[in-house]
Amino acid sequence: MAITTSFGRCAATFLLCLPAAALAQVQAGPGAWSGNQTWGADSVNGGNLGGYFYWPASQPVLGGKRALVLVLHGCQQTASGDVIDSGSDKGFNWKGVADQYGAVILAPNATGNVSGSHCWDYSLSNHNRASGHDGVLLNLVSRFLGDARYAIDPNQVYVTGLSSGGGQTMVLGCLAPDVFAGIGINAGPPPGTTIMQIGSVPSGFNASTAASKCTAMAGAQQGKFATQLASVVWGSSDYTVAPAYGPIDAAAMRMAYGGSFARGATVTVAGGGSNTPYTDSNGKLRTSEMAVTGMGHAWPAGPGGQNNHFVDATKVDYPAFVMDFWFKNNLRASRIAAPVMTACKASVAGNAVTVSGAAVDAAGTISSYRVVLNGSTAVNDAAAGSGASFSIGYALANGYYSGTVTATDAGTGQTSAPCTLPQFLVGPAPALQPPAGLKAGNASASSIALSWSAATGAGGYNLYRNGSKVTPTPVSGTSHTDTGLAASTAYTYRASSVANGVESALSASVSASTSSGFSCSTVTASNYAHVQEGRAHDSGGMALANGSNQSMGLNNLFYTQTLAQTSAGHHVVGNCP
């Protein structure tokens, strides 16, 4: 490969990219919730800590590294049934803000069966960092911090939760202020209260009581309270956890933080929220208190979230609110901006290709540009240039190419978001190839989703079912859902590429079958009603879901669960998948 270099403007530009934002370049995730994970054993409550995590494909927005958010469900809830996205709703509604901020989300399930309702053990009197729910959750955070793939910034670790998860959030914020830069307490009883006191504040208990418990738990880490943030939210119509605990939680955290605070003006938050901010003596926003008008005991998920089983999608979008609060006011993370690629371009003259670009760097000087080209002649040039702009030439073999350009700061080491070089052709066009990687995805009783990898030079794709073309015109993207199919039927698919009226040969085939047509349904009722109506059965006073035998808590009128019937006679706790 021959390289020639000259700085300045290229004479003939035919490709140009202007990136949307300056983000640090870290490894992209799959942009989907993981399968159920097993993370660590709980010797106190029993079982292994399991759950799910979301690793976004988007880049982080603060300091070039990702934030980590630990999200804790409430009693009678599960991560799979209520927190993460399902086929019909977005659960607690974390995926959107995770994509927006490039943050990793952890959604664990409470180990054991505390209080017979899958609660977190916030009400213990002997919290410590090595055992019980405190220990397994801190170990989980440590696992992700220690894995370089996720690029977690230890100064951007947060925790939030509902009900017992809200109480556990406050416990973790108090126990490990060195770990958590911000907390988000939702209807959480404070330390020093018992599970029998959730409905009303006991006589003599106040913010000072909770603050004393909080600072005692922190021990030698009390100094870290100076840079922690706390958001508290509750429903004005919560008849499970007393709304009066909300202001107590916030006031207790301010006492733990120390110093004087000024109360700001109460402002309206979309969806019925009424938020009051408090700033410290340095003018830094440290706590917020939000009452949600008319909301009961629920996680305020906002539009698109789940709207049952203690999740409310009709009011405030709390994930969006609390992420904005944490990110704008974080007192620990670096706010030095990464370089910004302002332009990149490629010019072709025969087999000579000139790649050039420019960037700005608020932190100092750009030490290097990296050019990556994918094609017949692979290029990964980490020293393509430096300074405000660059231009470099490559001698490339015939074929289609695509690539990126990034800029790195000399002092901070931060790297810009990639500026994308769209596909370009060197030399004559090669023979058109069929798309690779044809695969079947989700199937219903009448449809099958298919996807494939892009073929170089293709302008569109045709799809064939059992030898007959099913796309009247070529599909422009790399996915298609075939509809109007018969239930419980197997089909075979192949695909071709199309460019300038020319169609390639057909790809390798893939087979898939439609489902039986059974429609999953959910019922929310008391455990007693579920047993009486045949969706569950009694075992030693506990209600178990028929088919899955999942524990639902005590068999009485006071425990409510949502059961999904996923097949004939088979019920699971939570919503339909």
Describe, in short, the structure shown.
This protein is mostly beta strands and 577 residues long.
Explained architecture:
With 577 residues, this protein is mainly β. The chain has eight helices and 35 strands. The strands form eight sheets. Strands 2, 3, 4, 5, 6, 7, 8, 9, 10, 11 and 12 form an eleven-stranded mixed β-sheet that branches. Helix 4 links the parallel strand 6 and strand 7. The longest helix has 14 residues. It is flat and about 85 Å long. The N terminus is likely disordered.
Helix content range: 10-25%
Cα gyration radius (Å) = 28 Å
Shape: flat
Structural class: mainly beta
Number of helices: 8
Separation, N- and C-terminal Cα atoms: 52 Å
Main β-sheet description: 11 strands, mixed
Labels describing this entry:
single chain; 577 residues; mainly beta; five-stranded antiparallel β-sheet; 8 helices; flat
Give the helices and strands, then pairings.
Layout: E1 3-5, E2 37-41, E3 48-54, E4 66-72, H1 79-83, H2 95-101, E5 104-109, H3 132-145, E6 152-162, H4 164-175, E7 182-186, H5 207-218, E8 229-235, H6 245-257, E9 261-263, E10 267-269, E11 273-280, E12 285-292, E13 299-300, E14 311-312, H7 318-329, E15 340-349, E16 352-360, E17 366-374, E18 379-385, E19 389-395, E20 399-409, E21 419-426, E22 439-443, E23 448-451, E24 460-465, E25 468-469, E26 479-482, E27 490-499, E28 502-503, E29 510-513, E30 521-526, H8 527-532, E31 536-539, E32 542-545, E33 551-554, E34 560-567, E35 570-573
Parallel strand pairs: 4-5, 4-6, 6-7, 7-8, 8-12, 13-14
Antiparallel strand pairs: 1-19, 2-3, 3-5, 9-11, 10-11, 11-12, 15-16, 16-19, 17-18, 17-20, 20-21, 22-23, 23-26, 24-25, 24-27, 27-28, 27-29, 30-34, 31-32, 32-33, 34-35
Helix pairs in contact: 4-5, 5-6
